[in-house]
Amino acid sequence: MWGTRYGAYLIAVHEGSRMNLRRDTIRSMAKDKKHEGKKGRKKHDVPVTSPAPTVPGEAEYTLDALLARLGPATEEEVLAYIEGATDEELIAEGRQVDTARIDTDTARIYGRALDFIERAQNKEQEKAEKEKDKKKVRRPAGPVRGVTRALLRVGVWAAVQGHDAYVALRTGIAQQRSGRALNQDTAEETRQEGRDLHVELIDALRAVAGQKKTLLARIAQAANLSAAPEGLAGSIRALVAIGREMLADPSPAMKLRLADGESGVTTEYLDACEETAGRVAKAESVGGAVLPSPEVSQAEVDRWDGINLVLLETVIRAFEAGHRVNPTVPRVLPISLRTYFTKTKRSAKSTEPAVAVAEAGGKRERDDD
Fold first, then answer.
1. Could you tell me if residue 48 is inside a domain?
2. pLDDT for residue 188
3. What is Dmax (Cα atoms) for the chain?
4. Do the Cβ atoms of 84 and 310 come closer than 8 Å?
5. 69-90: per-residue pLDDT in tens?
6. Which helix (H) or strand (E) holds 272?
7. Which is more confident, 147 or 361?
8. Residue 191: CA atoms inside 13 Å, Cβ hemisphere, count?
9. Cβ of 349: how many Cβ atoms within 10 Å?
10. Cα separations (Å) of 75 from 79, 80, 163, 213, 357?
11. CA separation for the pair 121, 327 (Å, rounded)
12. Is the pLDDT of residue 303 over 90?
């Protein structure tokens, strides 16, 4: 009986020791793992599900650099990708968004899309090279169905056209405004010069006219023309005509008052007055002059904006669909245009990039590839 109890005791002790050893071992392993996690994790290690920062950690792209990588396109190619859209529809869409916002998102989204496609195609090429000796390998489909280098090439080229049209319009408007302001300033200076000359000419002629009532009346009548349709220039010309008659008057009294040019009323002075009248006439017509319009119209800029919104949406939707099927496909969500896509596409029942933007809270995800 004692032997039986002692045997049971030894078994219990042995089992208890094993359980304690197992518990201590588990605790030790957990502690070591926790310690290694704290010590070995790098600061830049981020879970793949965490959204990437807005700017840090992402390559910077420009439309010019992407155009150099992909090459030019033609408007015929652009029209092929937006076949079915009318100019009226494109202009209406483009009118809702500023071109600068489109520039920002097209450069970033097309750049990320191009980098991903090239990396995926390089991997497929390496795989095909390894398998070509074993069997004939068909050319694989693109990593994102619906998106090709040709589409990105056309999209980048169209974005550059939209940017250039916007710059041309803004530049033309600025030049038109500055030209109008400059013309107005110059015209006002000329008009003021004419007004001062007008007063001086009237007083000079009156001084030479003496008290001859008929001549004084004619001078007064010519002076009042400045307020008539003839305007200031017409009044100066009428006064110059009277002054020339005075210079041609052979009477001794007139010659005495003219004082052989000492009075200031001379042929040279009257010629200068007439020349000023011509400049005043041109200055008075500046107010109604129509300056040349910019070479690019606002409608043309809006049309390119609409085209770029359509092409950009095509790429966004394709990558969103590809991401759902294969999480290694990155999401290329808009940032500058997030409000546009969420507002204009919110009511659509089909799968839209706006839904993806709304679900993601407007944040971008880091590439999983």
1. no
2. 79
3. 171
4. no
5. 999 999 999 999 999 999 999 9
6. helix 267-284
7. 147
8. 15
9. 5
10. 6, 9, 15, 78, 30
11. 17
12. yes
The answer to whether 223 and 199 have CB atoms below 8 angstroms apart is no
Long-range contacts of the stretch 213-222 (C-beta < 8 A, 24+)? 215/242, 215/246, 218/242
Domain match, 315 and 169 both:
yes
For residues 176-199, average pLDDT: 74
Asked if residues 270 and 243 have their Cβ atoms less than 8 Å apart, the reply is yes
Answer whether 117's CB lies under 8 Å from 280's CB: no
Specify whether 265 is located in the same domain as 201.
Answer: yes
Phi then psi for 86, rounded to 5 degrees?
-90, 160
Q: Is the pTM of this model over 0.85?
A: no
What is the pLDDT, as a whole number, of residue 156?
96
> How many structural domains compose the chain?
2
Q: What is the mean pLDDT of residues 303-325?
A: 93
**Do 300 and 163 belong together in one domain?**
yes
Judge whether 172 and 293 are in contact, CB under 8 Å.
Answer: yes
Tokens standing for residue 118:
């090239």
* Domain encompassing residue 217: 186-288
Q: Mean pLDDT lowest for which of 251-255, 282-286, 301-305?
A: 282-286
- Phi, psi (rounded to 5 degrees) for 172: -60, -40
Q: Classify the C-alpha dihedral 89-94-95-97 as positive or negative.
A: positive
Amino acid occupying residue 341: F
Neighbours of 294 (CB within 10 A): 17
